[in-house]
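Q: Hi! First time asking for a complex rather than a single chain. Here are the components, and I think there are two in total. Is that enough to go on?
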Amino acid sequence: MKLGEYDKTVLVIGGGPTAWEMSRSLAQDGIPVMVAAPDDAERADMPSGVEWILGAQVTDVIGQVGDFAVWLKAGGKRFERRAGAIILALDANRQPGVLPAGAAFGERIRAMTEAEDVLFGRQGHPSLRRVIVLDRLDGLSTAASHERLLRFAVRVQEECNATVYVLTSQVKVASIGLEILYGRLRDGGGLVVKPDAVQVETGDDAVRIRFRDTVLDEDVVLEADMLVAAEDEAPSPELERLAGVLRIERDKQGFLQADNVLRRPCLTNRRGVLSVGSSAAPSTQWDTEQGVTAATAEIRELYRWIEEEDHPDTILYNRDFCAFCLTCFRVCPHGAIHFTDRPNFLPLACQRCGLCAAACPGEALELVGYEKETFFKTLSSLKPLDVEGSKRIVAIACTKSAGRVLNAAPADAEIRKGLAWVEVQCAGTIRTTSLLRLLARPGLVDGVLVLACHNGNCRSGTGTVVAKNLVESIKVLLRAIGADPGRIGYISTAANDEVELARQITAFRDGLR
Amino acid sequence: MDRTSEDVLVIGGGIAGLTVALGLAKEGWRPWLIEKEDRLGGHAAAYVCKAVEGECQRCGACLVDLALKEHASEARIKTLVNAAIERITPSGSGHLAALETPDGLVEQPFRAVVLCHGFTPFDPRSRTNLGYGRVPNIMTGHELEAMLKVTGRVLRPSDGAVPRQMAFVQCVGSRNARLGHPYCSQVCCGYALRMARQIKNRLPETDLTCFYMDIQTYGKDFPDVWPGLGGEIRFVREIPGDYFSLEGDRVGVLVETGDAVEELSFDLLVLSVGMAPSPDQDRFCEWLNAPVGAEGFLRSDPDSGVFVAGSAAGPMSIVDSIAHARAAVRDVAGFLEGRK
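A: Yes, that's all I need. Here is the structure of the assembled complex.
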């Protein structure tokens, strides 16, 4: 596969409503779209001008934004295509919650997807008088699952003329339009109960449910023609494989919007790889619409950035020191290193965190603007001011959080008392040698601090964890040689939290011997 | 295409307005950004970081700071603070805005207007039974945020003592059709419980109670946090109706438990006030003929070049406002380029 050709085609992965919306939004903006749909069902209403590849599986991807080489498998053939960006738009996998003991799916107890087919399918509406909708009862439903639950319940009420009982522990209405939908359910005679100790009995003619109503504090028995189990949005099973192929992070549940607030609503750890709708997170219709439109805005901005800005090298590489150990490739959080006979640093993908350079055991790499020697010179010239009665602290601060706070604070602020600091692109790039050099100046430096971002708020994703581990390992080292481990500290902070950072720096200073 | 300064007026310099203006500037447009206060950032600039023990709680308050930093280095945005909008009238195919700026009245035509005037916190004084302003030591969630942000501590307003029993009351001004607020404000469960966790972290001895109807799934951290919350906070499924002052400036409330009525009392009680449409909305509605949605907030009218972004369109969190504003950038750019 060859890289180096700019192609604006966006590869959308998915074949359902989200992929459809996504490709339509891009096509409207004149962006060429290719859809890799995992199933091979043709749809009548595919947006025009969009290339649909049915039954397609993405098996391999290399490259960077504007220049991805993608291997696809479809119709028994394997072939290569080019794309400028990739958007994952697979719909959720719907799974019913666990039924109470004694209950089993059958004619009277159905999962919601199946119930929709039975009640609103071609056969028309069977005659029903009462329907129970049973939600999961641990309070962990989402607005997305309740949007579907409420729509279903209102539809049963309005189209089947049946009475609906919704059993849930927390009504989730935190999305635009849901409280009104909830009101429509109640106005139509629907009853929402918050039960405990639910028991289900299935008879020939009805399903009976016993529970304790936690609001009325009474035992209740309800009888209905059908019990419908609400479904959660689980990640599409294909996401795990694709996350591996694309080297993108997932959250604990397996969705692609990793637990990092900086990537909301559609970004991933790789520039030019986006996720929308239920590929990103459990999504209401509103969430999906915003995600799709925001992703289109993101693609437009990325392409403009590629076309209008210069993209010089971000990493200086010294082949003489390279052991071809793949460490850089492994630690890069942004998929910005492509290995051939040497590591290639892709300037459009690199987000300038410098984690690769810090981790390189041969010191073959340097982040442009943060060359090692210059940095060491700055470090050794750092002189914390002697303030009456105060210890002297040197800090290495992430420029994204603590650096911002320290620069914004007035020179005479408590937080800056006896403190000198140097900024780095990411606290994860701090090297053991830098910290040891600082600690080796006991006449000048009483304490050394590493100031990083909070976990989940690190632009490089892993930098903050790397920094924290580094400080821990140096504490172990200091203890081993009989030195005071209290001389080094780790504090995480945010760019808007001067008060708390000052409190923690003061606590560290007060703890110094 | 010639991208001139006469193209877009962004009204409101909160997180949504900043995001829209920055996005349009990156697309090469030269938006005007009008803010009535003397600083940008809106409500969210006053919110505190809610990280607990080095773990980001994804509240997004720090993202405002990020947007402000980006704004400072973006020359394509013409920013006017301390500026009011005198009126907006139709002009040709666009809108003529008369702006009251510190340098005098400016009349300027625009092709598109993006309404990012945000929300107004529900005013608890409008419901006298809530006791706000009458009973000491009842404060709003916004006031608690500001206190945490500025002092880093939680203290009783009446005597500066550390509260030993504290309560949060949810859904104040939300989920109430009689008030004309048929919506969940979306952010209150998140802010109250995140602050509660932070308080518990700093003051482990303080007992916390939460009065609620339903707890909303407020973030991706919710599944990790919710199962353990019951151990840290006492949850009472009822919104107290009456609030009164007790000895020692404690706050009393009555709740029904089974058949009995129980009196509970606290050192400090926090009203989780929801989001209401901004009072500015009516004027924009009148001038621009912008449609009002079922919840009472504004909707975009793309055909007339009127767009709404952020909490002017409905209650939403900081991160959702950013998403909404990012989406608006694409819609506005599409309109300006003559696409649908």
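A: Chain A has four domains: 10-92+235-308, 94-231, 315-365, 372-511. Let me know if you'd like any chain examined more closely.
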